[in-house]
Amino acid sequence: MNQTNIKKTNYHSTVSSKEHMSNLGKASGVTDLEKKYNDLDDMIASDPGRRLPFWVKEVDKPTVEIDWELLDNFPSMYQTCFNPEVYGEKEYFQLCDNQREYNVEWMKNKVPGHSIQDNAIAHASNWLWKGFEIPWTGPRWETDPLHQVYYTPEEFGVPRYEGTPEQNARLIRVAARVFGSPDVGFVKLTDKTKKLLWKCIRFENVEEGYDPGDGTKVLPDKDLWVICSAMPQSLVFGKSTSDSNWAGTNGLAYSFTKIYSGRMLSFLRSLGYQSYGGDMDVLGSAVGFGVMAGLGEYSRMGQMISPFFGSMFRTNLLIVTDLPLAETKPIDAGMLRFCKTCKKCARNCPSGAITHKDEPFWGGDDPWHNKGIKGYYIRGRVCFSYMFKYPTNCGTCQTVCPFNKMDKAFIHKLIKISISYLPIFNKFIAEMDDLFGYGLEKTETSLMWNRNPKDIPLYGLDESRF
Prior knowledge:
Number of domains: 2
Radius of gyration: 23 Å
Strand order of the largest sheet: 5-8-12-9
Largest sheet: 4 strands, antiparallel
Helix content: 25-40%
Strand content: 5-15%
Oligomer: single chain
């Protein structure tokens, strides 16, 4: 490239914190609404770091008990309970064919929530989720099908960005908010946390990782950190999980995740650092890393729940980098303790796949259960088979979780404080959640096409929390 053609014409972008408080999460710490930021460094310096409510405690160990000696890496994403290997290829594709037949039948019979337009928005929302694979080492000019240009500091002829781990963590938090993740955490890869990676990932004494093309992936054997990014999904549409557009809710979140991933990978490379992974199934346990990063707690449904937005996120995106980052700790907000008495996801699960046992237990009976976790194990085959009997898949367990509440109502914050400090009231709180009718909406008024378009939050998200 011709270095003489590169000119910097705009040195600072002036940003008003009044305009960007909500989407950059500054509201609780900014008193002068008209303060001007000179540049990104100025904005980062004004943020003391990740803010947690007082009732969310940082702890040295996650609330779910882990036996790190017993814990073993899963071979890959394709050995977990939602993939073809669980059934065998023939049975898996037979399930897929059956789902399509149900879909056609319900459209022809004009079943509410399964119209042509419901299917159209579901299909369109899935765009970019599948069919575009992100390279293991991140976007580069020579591998990007769109031939976007991603210059590194070395290619510009300038030193790479340098900051303390705390400054770097703030930098990533700001970028994450801009790119579309409401909460991020950081886990350093150690002998323990490497067990959360898939077995197909190996370490070599090389300067940079690479993809050898044999089904494995290689990371350099040096200090590495995992950026964990919570990717939200719509609570508004989740309440209509029996409608076909619910599948679009999932797909839209995955599509956003793909876009977010490419941006974050490019951002890290443009800072002068390595980045790996970034696709949704190539690195390791999203729940495991999310729990260790403090994004949420392990729950009865086997997923992670957040103190901020409950279970209403689609995935925890994982990216490995050599940018030094200040680690975030696991949290204790009383949510796993609440799961012991709540059981709302188990009671509402249409397939009966979620256990009703009071206490967590060690290991499960199925090959996709990790024996090193003292948790609640769902019957994945039962869950998966049920989902494929209907055009919509299923998101009932996520949707009915009592932590999915609009935080604008102060009573919900009081309830979360009670769950954290006064677990004696947990059973009563769970019963009140049922009494007030929170969870699924079964009437035709829940259909998105019957709503005033202005009543649908942008991207379907609840803007009061994200």
